[in-house]
User: Fold these one by one.
Assistant:
Number 1:
Amino acid sequence: MLAMGASGGTVASTTKLTDEQRLDWLRLIRSDNVGPRTFRDLVNAYGGAKGALAALPGLARRGGAARTTICSEENAQAEIDASRARGIDLIALGEPDYPPRLQTIDDAPPLIAVRGDITALSRPLIAIVGSRNASAVGLKFAATLARDLGEAGYGIVSGLARGIDAAAHRASKGTGTVAVLAGGHAHIYPAEHIPMLEDLLGHGAAVSEMPLTHEPRAHDFPRRNRLISGLSVGVVIVEAAKRSGSLITARMAGEQGREVFAVPGSPLDPRAEGTNGLLKQGATLVTEAADVIAAIEPILGRGIEPIEEPAHDEPLPPDHEPAEDERGRIVGLLGPSPISIDDLVRLSGTSPAIVRTVLLELELAGRLERHGGALVSLV
């Protein structure tokens, strides 16, 4: 996977954006229908965020959008200024302080907003998540596990939610914990956890990819969950019902190549149905911190490797507009069921560059959804 520099190429870990480049990156990721994967494609195709911003209106129009909203320089600068006033750093993908494991996922945020002790993000991190309506036993175990892992040198990641998340954060605040927010830093959810968040910032950090004033909605929580697992070496699920957001985190962890751990529970407790199911599917059983450490230590010794993605060697010509028959063939092959980009190239009889151009047009028009594994579908 690419770590994007201002020119759109791979950057070294010592590279930092200029103020102008950071402003352009923020404008691009805050523009309509630009997500992390689209951001990367645009920056790589158009030589940087500035070129991508100039290309957005034409691409969206060809994809069928009547108009597209591009984040203005004024709005982006206002967010940067307001963030700095709150002690929040906007860290770009590829910069030295960007969390190294998060950088390996295929939809890593181009910019993350971090408040607190940034060095907490450079430690080996273990996620602990679970039920909001947790049992007393679950809360006690989560706290014990977080405390023991913290004392062993690991940072703890969770989602600041009620129940298991809160127990893990509180128990590890002295050794370092990272709270991943579903909304912006100006809208902490739940509001009752604001004092806890302020308390953990001395040795830990709060992380968000959302605009500063964004108020979290239901669909923002699964998006947040991929960051919880992406930051971590492994994810421990303490309690989870059959249909639980924690199981989404576990699934994402598996897709990202992270270790998935589960704490067994009584088969009579519905809060253990999801975790017991994970164990049946091959998750590593956890009854103490030593179980996690034994599985994690060999992984840390191997270093960090990016998730492999399908190669598309042909460069995307920035000034190329597909012919109508080419565009029609590609759009005609798309539907509500996900299809791989490689299959689109093969079945359409066109080049990877043309297919990727059409996909960018459709996505910027709000007509395309991207899935993991280089799969796409029409909205």
Number 2:
Amino acid sequence: MIDKNFDEIEDDEFTESEEEQNLFEHFRFVVDQGQAMTRVDKYLVNCMSNISRNRIQEAAESGNILVNGKAVKSNYRAKPLDVISIVLDYPPNEFEIIPQDIPINIVYEDDDIILVNKQPGLVVHPGFGNFDGTLLNAIAWHMKDYPEFNANDARIGLVHRIDKDTSGLILIAKTEHAKAHLGKQFFEKTTQRRYQALVWGNIKEDEGTIVGALARNPRDRMQFTVFPEGENPLAKHAITHFKVLERLAYVSLVECRLETGRTHQIRVHMKHIGHTLFNDERYGGHIILKGQNTSMYKAFIKNCFLICPRQALHAKTLGFVHPSTGEYMHFESDLPQDMQELIDKWRNYTKNME
């Protein structure tokens, strides 16, 4: 688990750590409760993208991998709920969250929380390759006149995450109490999260459940893939419930309800059952997977890709218990313009086929 089961992200958030030793935390992971004991170097290679096992082992030999605050060697066997940090001898000021005036759609706010309907293309937080221009930079700007809010304090801020090119609802905690309370709800899977996605193919079943443990694909570490339960000790148990909302010629509009929140969960699970998300480049949905081999159809699909130049996935609903009032709160967001236009285009195509 990465910092209270944050959802869909490669690079973890950081906090300044052990300043008196000139060491600074850059990545922080919390081992899942159900995780089998695994060598810490193997665990970290699975958790992090674009890093070799040799680099992890070198970091351990230099005393830069800490477990529960103590340096460990690469053969240390990580156990459930261990807190693993990778620290470096230079400050993470490249990731400092600075206020930036970036337009965001705040759909609800009170003294404890901010709920944002995130636009596609907006990275959630700074990381390698995205040092600024993120949702958290926008939140820092929004809260700049409130000195008690520190955007760089890991005890507040993001409660969960969604991918850069996924649109929809995302929750930010304004206080330490709110983040702890809401983080516990996400960890215990008591929140209600529903997504809508357009996927390739006509799904036979009206509804179903996908169960498949997820870990990084050993052939492409930028992807995740499904492993049989028990085969890969690093794979995390994941459950997605789906329901077909509409069948449109060679694609299907589906609602997905998350029972767990794993990195790329919906994208990987839908591909696993043969229905890759439409225009999901990372998982192969950016090419024609279903339909006709005609120039007219190819032109139609090209126009569809131009209308919605990203994976067609939207975090539509979010339900949770308010951290202070105890009231159950439920929010829904409309599909963004690109997805709505894409669906309408497929509806017109389907109608003309009849």
